[in-house]
Amino acid sequence: MVMVVAAVVQLSLGDTAADYDSIRNYAGTATVRDVVGQHIAGRFVVNPDDTTSGEIPGGILVDVLGRRWYRQGGICQL
Fold first, then answer.
1. Residue numbers of the domain that contains 58
2. Considering the domain boundaries, does residue 78 fall inside one?
């Protein structure tokens, strides 16, 4: 007897942003944003425990409310 088990994995997008400036200028309530612009992409997540880190372009972004958005999965450029 052969048993086949299939699983469906669904990835969900966070709130989308066209570029890094869209995150820097963001004042909404989302805590996950996916940059989906041309030649740049990545998932950024708010780190509520960090209120002091400076910006590292493409790695840590600081928005207008002072939240630190951390890139998930490392820094890359296309």
1. 15-72
2. no
State pLDDT tens for residues 22-63: 999 999 999 999 999 888 889 999 999 999 999 998 899 999
Q: Tell me the whole-structure pTM to 2 decimals.
A: 0.75
**Is 6 part of any domain?**
no
Per the listing, tokens 């209120």 go with: 51
Distances (CA, A) of 7 to 4, 10, 13, 34, 55: 10, 10, 19, 25, 39
With beta carbons less than 8 A apart as the criterion, state whether 26 and 64 touch.
yes
Q: Is residue 28 part of a domain?
A: yes
Counting every residue written for the chain, the total comes to 78
**Does any domain span residue 26?**
yes
